[in-house]
Fold:
Amino acid sequence: NPKQWYQRRVRGLTIKCIAKHKLDFASFFFPPGAPVGLAPLLVPVETISFFSRAVSLGVRLGANLTAGHMILHIISDFGAQMLASGTLGGGIGGVLCTAALFPVCILEMAVAVVQAYVFCMLTTMYLNDA
Structure:
């Protein structure tokens, strides 16, 4: 269940942060050097930022990988429709669309590698900040 996964991650991150920083944990929600008059604005923003870290990782990863799969699906569907048209132009266009799938697959794999790297780096940074 994604909701339970998120809750476990947020709880774990919060417990780790409180154990490491003790009472200084509250300073995460009000940056040092900020004017006290901005506290009513800064504290809610920083609280939302702290608790949205775990979900932002999954959303970023899922959105980028889903976009690549949608591009593959659109190109392949378009090529299949062109081939099914039965015309010479449709046949040529369908073959070109099918040929375009290979470079798009390579690009999709490169995006997956970059996203895995970004996911690992951000996770490490978030845990280090906690």
